[in-house]
Amino acid sequence: MNALQSSVSVDDDMEFKLPNLPVCLDAHPFNYAFAVGCVDGSVRLLHLESDNQNRTISQRWRKRYKAAVRGCKFAVDGNSLYVVSKNLALCQQDLQTGSKMRCIQIAHNHAPYSLYPIDQHLIATGDENGICKIWDWRLDRKPAVAEFRECIDFVSDFVCDVAKTTLLFTSGDATLTAVDLRTMKPICQSEEMHTELLSLVIAMQGYRCLFGMVPYLLIMQNCVSGKRVLCSSGNGYLEVFNWDQWGTIVERVDTGHQDSVEDLCLLDDRLLASASLDGSVRITHLCPNRFITVLAAHDSGVVALASTHDRRILASCGHDHKILFNDFDPEAFKLLKKRDPEQRERRITDKSQLQRKQFFRHMICKED
User: Which of 79, 137, 198, 244 sits at a 20 to 30 Å CA gap from 350?
Assistant: First the structure.
C-alpha cells in the first residue's frame, strides 16, 4: 500500500458526507487512511491527502456486505481490514482492492457487535448476546481458540495492554471483564456499574508528548504497563478502574456530556476525546480531571472516533451522516490554570458555542 505524506493538516470544517448512517470508524496505524462502515452494509476506505495548500478527502474503494456493518478495524500491520457484519460474518479485506481475503461466514450464533485485532494473529469479537471469541488467524480449521460467556448483554468494546497479556472488554450488562491471554482464562469481572458500558481506553501509560516524534507502535512497545482504565457509560460519566483492580471503580469522571458517551479516543497520555449522542466531541484532561474544550460539533449524535497514527487529526462520525476531520495539537490543549482567566474565557465550553464560531467564520470575507 502506498504511503501518504508524513504530515497532513485539515481545515476546521473539513468533512466527508455519507449517503447512509455510519456505525464504525477506524484510522490506519501508519498513514492517513480511514475505514468507515455503515448500516447499509457498505465499507469505505478514505484517504486524507495534502498538496501544498490543497487538502482533499478521496474514496479509494467501496464494498458492500449483505447486512449492516457492526465493526471495522485495520490489521496491526496495516495491510488489511477486518469487518464484522450483522449477518454473522467475520471477514478480512485487502486494502489495495477491497476484495475479501478470507471470510468466516458464521463467526457467532448471534449478530456480532464489536471487533478488535489483538496482534498480527489474534482477533477478538463480541456479539449481541455477550459472547466473546478469540480467533487465531493462522489456523485454517477451527480458528476460534477461546470463548467467554461471562456477559449477559452485548460486548461493546475491547482494549489490550502493551504486553498483550490482558484483554479487557465492556458490556451492555454494565460490567468490565478481564481475560488472561496467556492462559485464555478470565481473570475477573467487575460488579455492575450504574448503566451500560460502551467504550474503554487504557490511560496514563507514560508516553505523553511523544506522539509525532517516533512511530506510535515503538512508543507503545517501550512504555510501562497501563495504570488506569476508563470506561464510557450510558449516563455520560466515565467509570475509572485501577490496573489489576477490576472488581470495582476507584472514581467517576463527569465528561459534561448531556447524553451517553458512545466512544473514547486517547489523544495524549492524559488527554481524552469523548463522543456523545448529544452531538459533541469533548476533550478532557485526566488527573486532574478537568474539561478542556469542545473540539467538534455534529448536527446529531456522534457514534465513533478515530485518530491518526501521529494523533494530529481526530475524525468523528455521527447520525448526521458526516465524518468531520479536526486538527489536534496537544500543546494547544494544555490544562488551563486558574491564574489565567483570559485564556479560560477563550475556550469553547459547549456545542452551541462551537457552532456559532463556525457559522460566523464563513461570513467573514476578504477585501479586494
Answer: 198
Asked whether the predicted pLDDT for residue 1 surpasses 50, the reply is: no
| pTM (predicted TM-score) | 0.85
Instruction: Please provide residue 352's backbone torsions phi and psi, each rounded to the nearest 5 degrees.
Output: -65, -35
Model confidence over 160-182: pLDDT tens digits? 998 999 999 999 999 999 999 99
Which residue type sits at 308? T
Domain, as residue range, for 76: 15-362
Read off the pLDDT of residues 301-327 as tens digits, 9 standing for 90 and up.
999 999 999 999 999 999 999 999 999
Q: Find out whether the peptide bond into 112 is cis, omega within 30 degrees of 0.
A: no
Q: Which residues pair with 48 in a beta bridge?
A: 57
- Is residue 10, in this structure, part of any structural domain at all? no
Kindly give, in sequence order, each residue whose CB lies less than 8 Å from that of residue 170, ignoring residues fewer than 6 positions away. Answer: 155, 156, 157, 176, 177, 197, 198, 199, 200, 231
**Residue in this structure with the C-alpha cell 455534529, named with its chain if needed:** 298
Residue 59 included in any domain:
yes
The whole-number average pLDDT for the span 2-28 is 74
Whether the per-residue pLDDT at 339 is higher than 70: the answer is no
Least trusted range by pLDDT, from 74-78, 224-228, 260-264: 224-228
Domain CATH code at residue 284:
2.130.10.10
Contact 301, 260 (CB under 8 A): no
**Residue 274 and residue 287: Cα distance in Å, rounded?**
16
Q: How far apart are the C-alpha atoms of 79 and 162, rounded to whole Å? A: 21
- CB-side exposure of 178: number of CA atoms within 13 Å? 20
Letter for the amino acid at 251? E
Total domains, the chain:
1
Upper half-sphere CA count for residue 97 (Cβ side, 13 Å): 3
Contacts of 335 (CB under 8 A, 6+ apart): 285, 288, 290, 292
Asked if 74 contacts 35 with a C-beta cutoff of 8 angstroms, the reply is: yes
Helix (H, G, I), strand (E, B) or coil at 270: coil
Distance from C-alpha of 70 to C-alpha of 38, rounded to nearest angstrom: 8
> Is 154 a domain residue?
yes
Contacts of 12 (CB under 8 A, 6+ apart): 326, 327, 358, 361
